[in-house]
Amino acid sequence: MKLLSQTAVCPNYYDPLYTVGFSAGDDCESERERIVRAVGQLVFQQFLEMSIRNAVEMDAKPAKLEVVPTSQILEESRRVLGASISDLAQMLGVSRPTIYSYLEGNEPSGSGKDFSGRLTLLKEVVQLVKEAHLPVPCSTLLRRKDVHGKTLKESLSDDSLSVESIQAFIFVEQQQVLARRARMSKQGQVKVPQKTDIKAISVPVHLE
Predict the structure, then answer these.
(1) The whole model's pTM is what?
(2) Which residues of 121-134 are buried (b: 16+ CB within 10 A; e: fewer)?
(3) Is 189 buried (19+), middle (13-18) or exposed (0-12) by CB count in 10 A?
């Protein structure tokens, strides 16, 4: 069977079903069958090209960042950290009425970079507390002091708090919780679950 031209759908495969351009003397297929095969191949190729183009365009689009309402961050801070309205106002550098406004669903308008950064760090604190499985509300965390005698709340309010220092605060809080549970268990006040294991508690890499 003599071939005038050949187009393969996939370079890794050779299939006579996808071969077009038979010689006029080929009596294996009718003219109509050859045309149907050729059209089918072209349609399939176009489908592949369109799929690849769509995949490239999807990869080129920037990922959408999840926007968490300010009210949700503040409510979670109150629930997880036991933060009062005054605590939130001090940490974010705004007034108490402003905090109430945000809790009602109003979003900050024209807030500076400091506010946005502090709100992001506050959200990070809440997330790390939940990931560390600390007792909620973890009301002692905001008032826990670092080696310089500064509390987490003060560090957040003066923009000296970082993700690394948050992890250090969380680590110290974990140790205090374990020590408190062990002490209460020894005194017979509470029974520590057998599954409690200090190795199961996450520890920041830089503190290991």
Answers:
(1) 0.60
(2) bbbebbebbeebeb
(3) exposed
